[in-house]
Specification:
single chain, mainly beta, Porin, eight-stranded antiparallel beta barrel, two-stranded antiparallel sheet, 10 strands, elongated, signal, OMP/PagP_B-barrel, Beta-barrel_OMP, Outer membrane beta-barrel protein
Length: 179
């Protein structure tokens, strides 16, 4: 019985320490700073580090537009993408908010041939990125996010084990800050 009392007291203390949200509202005028990324240690070029940053403004409730800067680096290549995005958030009565997004970016791939079995030159291309994900709001100003996105480019800018390709899919995790 004593163990149950300690467990119940612990749960009550944790519940009191984290305020409950009655659903998230992303009203017009809200601003968001996002930081997402991933690390692939089994990449064709030893590793791939991906960092996505964004700043957005909600022009209507749940609808955001903004700018995005994505950076990808491996042992022998670097890719930079700069552009604009829009995102629609499906707010509800919970702390979980699914979203869909679209971005248009200019991308640049540069680097050396490294240990690849193929040659590549620096390339610049336009990309379209389609994204879907979910945010969990830990409080009204901070959310943890998980996203899958698919990008397609006008040129071959993605390094794979088979060579360069014009499209890729990535999973990224991060944090969003609202003010």
């Amino acid at each position: 019985m004593k163990k149950h009392a300690v467990a119940i007291a612990t749960l009550l203390a944790l519940g009191a320490a984290t305020p409950a949200l009655a659903g998230v509202t992303l009203e017009q005028g809200t601003q968001e700073f996002g930081l997402q990324g991933s690390l692939d240690l089994d990449y064709v070029d030893d590793y791939l580090f991906v960092l996505n940053t964004s700043y957005g403004y909600f022009i209507r409730e749940d609808w955001e537009i903004g700018g995005v800067l994505d950076v990808s680096m491996s042992d022998s290549s670097q890719q930079f993408q700069l552009g604009a995005f829009t995102e629609y958030n499906f707010t509800n009565s919970t702390n979980w908010v699914p979203y869909l997004g679209l971005a248009a970016q200019v991308a640049n791939l540069s680097g050396s041939d490294g240990d690849f079995d193929f040659d590549f030159e620096d390339a610049t291309a336009m990309t379209l990125k389609f994204a879907g994900g979910i945010k969990y709001f830990v409080n009204p100003h901070v959310a943890i996010s998980a996203e899958v996105n698919y990008s397609i480019a006008t040129d071959d800018i993605n390094v794979t084990k088979d060579g360069l390709e014009d499209s890729f899919t990535r999973f990224v995790f991060g944090t969003r800050f609202y003010f």
